[in-house]
Amino acid sequence: MRGLMQSWPLTVPSVIDHAARWHGEREMVTRTVEGAIHRTNYAELHERARKLAQALRRLGVGKGQVVGTLAWNTHRHFEAWYAIMGAGGVCHTLNPRLFAEQLVYIINHAEDRIILLDTSFVAILESIQTQLPNVAAYVLLTDRAHMPDTTLSNTLCYEELIAAEDGNCDWTPVDEDDACGLCYTSGTTGNPKGVVYSHRSNVIHGLAVNCADGIGARSVDNVLPIVPMFHANAWGLVFAGPMAGCKLVMPGARLDGENVCELLTGERVSVTAAVPTVWMMLLQYLEKTGATLPHLKRVIIGGSAVPRVMLEKFERDYGVEVVHAWGMTELSPVGTLASFKSGMENLSFDERMDIKVKQGRPIYSVEMKVTDDAGVDLPHDGKAFGHLLVRGPAIAGAYLKGEGGQILDEEGWFDTGDVATIDELGFMQITDRAKDVIKSGGEWISSIEIENLAVGHPQVQEAAVIGVAHPKWDERPLLIVVLAPGTTPTREEILAYLEGKIAKWWMPDDVAFVAEIPHTATGKIQKLTLRKQFETYKLPTA
Amino acid sequence: MRGLMQSWPLTVPSVIDHAARWHGEREMVTRTVEGAIHRTNYAELHERARKLAQALRRLGVGKGQVVGTLAWNTHRHFEAWYAIMGAGGVCHTLNPRLFAEQLVYIINHAEDRIILLDTSFVAILESIQTQLPNVAAYVLLTDRAHMPDTTLSNTLCYEELIAAEDGNCDWTPVDEDDACGLCYTSGTTGNPKGVVYSHRSNVIHGLAVNCADGIGARSVDNVLPIVPMFHANAWGLVFAGPMAGCKLVMPGARLDGENVCELLTGERVSVTAAVPTVWMMLLQYLEKTGATLPHLKRVIIGGSAVPRVMLEKFERDYGVEVVHAWGMTELSPVGTLASFKSGMENLSFDERMDIKVKQGRPIYSVEMKVTDDAGVDLPHDGKAFGHLLVRGPAIAGAYLKGEGGQILDEEGWFDTGDVATIDELGFMQITDRAKDVIKSGGEWISSIEIENLAVGHPQVQEAAVIGVAHPKWDERPLLIVVLAPGTTPTREEILAYLEGKIAKWWMPDDVAFVAEIPHTATGKIQKLTLRKQFETYKLPTA
Fold it and tell me: Which domain holds residue B464?
């Protein structure tokens, strides 16, 4: 017996249709790449996205065609997403922080036919265009007056493309399982791999993220997604925002403390989302200037673990609720949020922070478990840590063109590559990347936990912990630190700071002082490079 | 090009799996039919639902088998829903307020094989069991000690069925479009028609309802669904609640002011939902006793329009936010909610109430429009009123066994049978049922708008407005009132009260005083009966 509900596919264009019809007057505010503040609303965005869809069709974009975007969070980038997906195409977000050779690889691998780009990224593509034989046109996300001089061939002006159309068209009919988005993960080994989102996965993820215990945007909210659209889907806000009809504030290229503070205050932002690095800059700016955050209610922080000191500053000094989140490109990207359970609001400040440093509970539509090396489920006790596996309708089942082979186990679980604990109340905490765990005498030591403690030392600017070969224990932890400018603590002082805070056998066997710690294009510590660098390092205990 | 996300069907059992795993400790509190308060949690509910699914399979329930329930909102009814749907069956909720012949009709039409019932409803089924040849067993939702003496044949004890199983089973694999729920609409004409929900529609509706601007349940919330599970899916809370992991408080059979007040306070309920009749009883109780609502934050009111005086009492006298909602069985059922848009919170009290008497904006996943008789879209101006049409993934596309024929127009729109306006900001307001609109000289007069005004007169207990034949204008409005006990206002006093509040040509041509206004099983005014009763009524203006 079948249900007798209407056949109504879950598609991305239905989201902007909803916003235009029921929240047409609601604003989108952009700090443009050209510098000025630009104001529009969902009704206009909808109309311009339809015109752009017409223009893209004229340029040959049809079902399944891949169109690249290399752009900041702006109204034009937002329009471009809906236009590409609405024309039946696949929007391939390019991360401008990737190395040139990685960009060449993914543009060719994905077979991008057209690339839409901000003027700030012209130089990047000029330098590699001869290696991109399949790209038929470059659309510059600007108007005629701001078109740059460029050696890029076949350039088109975005505003001219839109001006030439009448918007009198329907979206291209699609199946909800059709592809509409593509984002490559910048793996630390091997080539980047493409995650292919469907209309269905984007809509389900948008709904799940909008649930009250998720990011929970309301139409009265003013939301600032600093997390970039070119990385991990802007945490779903490009879909969740218009679903809720909230005002979106798009920060463009300038993510420094001053500019972010100006947008937060000037646009009365109530909810915002970004990685810790952005908040570090903002907090430094606030401390320097004495500025406050009078309108901000909630800040979603993910991408990497929130340092406890950042959490405490937001909550205690600025009265802003922090919601720690975890996700990854393969999860569309949100997996968990540390929204409180009943009773937690009555705990002491320190106890509440103990909960908030964890990455939190999975949203509905994400199944999750931790297992040991043999695949056996580990208890929810907050102590046992193991491989973090996930399953769900907005989680990757394979990479583009089969790269990486079969990525699910026989029960359909995807291994995140993270190592985590889950406590009695279901709060998950990442303890490490599986490949970065230090295996000492058959037991696991979490590199991240030690790093998080070490950066609490006032003279430590950044810290990394890696496993170094040891004749007796196989591996032992080495703490690598970048010192704060002008400070000179000793090895012993650093180690003394850690004592009592972690188990004795977790204590690093040595401390190495370096001028710089290498990072990936997305800002993560390159442990692989560090391990190579310290391959022959001899521990004093060895 | 297809998306490469995991194949993960949207199924109802995944909801209770989520709740048990991530909110296993969270309570469900029931005022049992036997009288005592019962406490359990999602982990136990999950286990018992699995055991019941095993027992139902043993009784022959497999994919597509229909199982009836005739029960109040209790933990057992909740378990029964998940067990029936988890066993691949279709849960057919029976409304105990239906007339006996209607129950016979729908039980036979739906081919219920088993019926689960509360002991309070034994007499109803005893009286009709000889007319239910296909029902193989009656399961009494109680334990052995409370099993009643009954002439029902083939009775089974619910708690014994559960005790006999080990819970060691998987849910029956289903496709997300498979049927899982069935609810008949009690049309005022013709036979009741069955709305068949799918796993997919229930999950999508649950997510949409949980969005922050929807009912927006959070895990910290204590939610009291007074709206019955046997009618309109308890507004989706049976699915939305466990998705969010909130505490559910199930009120059982006693919905009077005293009992509802006791649950609201004793269980620190933060969010609740019911029809106006229930709130009328509660408000009367509060006024009589001087009791307050210290914990309640939000009350969702739907089913019929919220009288303005009720709205004002909740908001001004008790500090409780009212969210006016609209839906119907065919919509799973939620269509709109009157959540505020930006800036509305700063309006004056009266202006805010002007907004809240409207039924509000559609949630994402509900498309909506109003059209004139010729099918032309009407403007969003808050004035033009016409047929209210809807489209969406949790909206009926047909009735069971094709009753009522083709119910969608060629563009897939479902005509709700309601007449409504939509204002500039997208707030919909029901003005009438299409068949109750009074057509005077080719123009429409809303019967509901006049009724709502009339009940504002302190001596009018209930009011109904119908069209009565008129030689010149075709129809003119007749106001029918039930007076408050011991009052004797005149026809002229009642009409004087309306003057200036509505357009002159909307003024009723006469007032008829009656002892009682007839109601349907679900509490709606039976306009059809009234029209028959006043068929030959001669208006003074005729």
Answer: 438-533
